[in-house]
Structures are given as structure tokens and as C-alpha cells.
Amino acid sequence: MKQSFWPDHVPFQTLEEMSVALIEGNEDQHTLTCYRICVFMKAASLLCRLPKKDRKPPLRRHLEQSIKQYEHEIHQALSEIDYLAPPSLVLLQAFLSGALFMQNQGDMSRSWTLTAYASRTLVSLNYQSMGPITLWDETKRDIYGSLYTCYYLDKMLSVLLLRPPSLPKLKLKPTDLVQLNPHLPLSASVKVMVEFAQIQEVVLDILNHANTDNQASITMKLTRDMYEIHHTIKKHQNQLPFRDTTYEWAAIEFGYYALLASVLHLHQRVVQNRSTHEDCVVASRQALIRLVKIQDKINMDANFLDHHPYFLTWTLLFYPLSPFFVLFCNVVYSANLEDYALMAEVTSGVSRFVEMHPSIAEIHRLFSAFLRIVKPVVHNHPNPAVPQHIPGAAAEEIGLTSMPSTTSQAPTMSSNLNGDTNMTQQEVDYPPSQDFINQNAEVVPEDESLWDLIDSQPWLGWMRSDALTENPMGS
Questions:
Q1: 203 part of a folded domain
Q2: Least confident of 217-231, 237-251, 309-323
Q3: Is the peptide bond before 241 cis (omega within 30 degrees of 0)?
Q4: Based on C-alpha coordinates, what's the Rg of the chain?
Q5: CB of 300 closer than 8 Å to CB of 345
Q6: Cα 317 to Cα 241: distance, rounded to the nearest angstrom
Q7: What SS3 state is found at 443?
Q8: 283, 323 in Cβ contact below 8 A?
Q9: Which domain holds residue 27?
Q10: Which single residue of 98, 182, 387, 392 has CA 20 to 30 Å from 118?
């Protein structure tokens, strides 16, 4: 249980107290409704992570029925909760549990709404004004957990949906609220998630205040901060017991490169210096390469999604668009077949999971639309170089089998991208793009309309746009 416990606003001790209160029914109806949301959210998450391959079929069926029952109870309790009740810690915890539940379900808009309720409740309780951490008693433990959970949900979802954040700036550093606990291996992953959110808070400031002074220096510092986070990730990945959470670290690495691509993309827009575009493209490739690796891990472990059904939504829906969109723009600009093939491989991998979740199906639809748009660019480009490592399904999807094949040389990863010059050949086997250079090695003049496209800010609303089949910027 401790191996699977995600540290947040409902710690072990609080979960036990809530569970006992539900069994005995010794609280008022409003409090019990809040407890139902918190306890059933934890129960569903923990049951999902139980290994099922060694369970007998009848027990597996009962576990699946229990999960569905808990999810139904959460929906029911969310409809019964008194949203106008006086602010309290338990109400705050219920809102956050509901937000995490909706995020796991792939409903990011409702998750953002519940996070906004949580943020307002938190402010009403004046928790955002708490100073430096001096005491870790039982109440403070729950408050600190609520603070960092609300913080990272507010920042991540606001960037994802291009909406203003609801939680004001905190007086203390959010990552200081997360304790690394050797008895809870996922605590290291949670701490990195909060570090990501600190980056996204600054991104939101820039997106919401376009005329802020010193934006170039701010985005440059963000890039340096991202490189520091990479060193932190590598350190935790090599430490016991944190290194045992293999799948979570795979998702964290994908999130890191996707967020790095987003930060570099923002820096490029702020400084209006097109020479920074290549670093952004390289980071985007690394994000999608790691997404392919995650898909391969899932395919190799037939039982993985049985006990990690929320993994895809947590991975794909938190950072779905920036790296894919950057490579899309690069293919439009340079007809880079390697990037096109990588996009196709990711899209082919996502297609295996479309029946599992409506939001995954929407992402697949979006990725497929981008591929359809750039397909003529690639197929009409003279002498395209065909990658040798693209699996048959992806190659067939983009029509590579009919193209002539050439051998392309894999690059060495730029040492300034993540501070790690020891990347393996397998990790960086996609060559750098030939942006700004045509097939005759001549510099291509800048096309401002294309740069307007490249400078666009990706957001989750594209997933539900009917205009995508004709124009990815239609929404």
C-alpha cells in the first residue's frame, strides 16, 4: 500500500480517521459527504494499483466492481456537497479529492473548476499567507498537503486550459511543503511535480501579462531552472527507495521534456530570436521519444493498465500538446521526415488506447489531424530521407513503405539541453532538423505567417475543435 500511496492532502492517518468516521457515522451529514469523496478517491486509486495477474478471476471481477462502485460514490457525493458551506479544512480536502478524481477521469475542465473552489476555500481559511514551515503537527500536515496539492493542480491545469490561476502566490516555497519520505516512494515524484508547477506559475505570469518587463531574462532563468530540475530527477532516480517507482519516473521524464519544450517555445516567442528554435525542437523530440518508450513498456506488460488505468490520463493529458505541436511546425517548415515519422509513431501508439478513455480518443483525433495536414508537405518534398527504425504500423500509417530509403546519421545530444552529455545512442536517434535550410543548402527566407503559427500557444481546447480537420489553429 505504501508503495502505491500518492502523498497529498489526505495522509495515511487522516484517511484512517475519515474511514472510521464513515463506518461509525458519527459526524454530521456535510462532513460525511466530504469524507466519502476523500476516502473513495483514495480507495479507487489504491485498488487500481493492486497487481491483478495473480488474483483469481472471481476476485478480479469483485475488485473491478468495487472500483466502479467507488467512482459512482464520488460522483454522487460531489453532487450532494454543500458548495456554500462555511470554509473548512475538510471541505478543502473534498474539493481537492474531487479535482484529482476528475483529472484521473480525463475531465480537465471540471478538475480545474473544483481546483478553483479549493483555491477559494484555501484563501478563505487564510492558508495562502502561512509563513516558513516551523512545525509538522497533525493539522499542519493536512494543511501543507492541501497547499501543495492545490498549488500544482491550479498551475498545471491553468496552463493546460489557458485560464487564469485561482490560487494567489504563496508566501512560502511550495516544494518546501513536500517531505521526501523513504516509506512513501512516490513522494519524490510528487516533489518533482510541484517543481514543475513552480515553473508553470511563472509561465502563467508571462502568458497573462504580455507586456511584463524583463520577459527575456525571466524565460532564460526558467530554462536554467529546468536544467536544475533535470539533475534533481536523475538524483532521485538513483536513490532507494524512490528508484523503484519505474513507471512514474518514465512519466516524469516525459513531463520534463514536454515542459522544457514549452519553456523554450515561450522563450523563443519572447526574444523573437529564431536561432533558439532548434533547442526547442530537440526537447520536443526527447519528449515524444520518451512517450514512445512508455507506450512500449505498456505493450510489454499486458497487466499494466489493469492496475494503472489512470496512468495514461496522468501522463498524456498533463503535457499533451507542446512537443507534438513544435514538431508539427518543424515539419511544416522543413519537411523533416524523421520528425514526421516520430509524430506518426506516437499517434500509432496512442491509437491502441482510444477505446479505454474518451480523452485519449480526442488526443488521437488531434494528433491524426496534425498528421493529415503535414502529410502533403512531406510526400511532395523531393528526396525525403526515410528513417530506418520506425515500426511497421507507424510506417504504414504515414505511407513510408512507398518511399525511397536512405541512411541518416544520428546526432549527439546537445550538452546544454539537460546538462547530461552521457545520453545513449538509443535515446537520441532522431537527427536535428534542417530548419532554415533547403535541399540546396541555401538559407530559406523567413515566412512571417509561418512564424505566427510557430508562436501560437498550444492548449487543450484544440482537442474539441471541429475545425481541426481543416486547420489546427481554427479554434
A1: no
A2: 309-323
A3: yes
A4: 23
A5: no
A6: 27
A7: strand
A8: yes
A9: 1-193
A10: 182
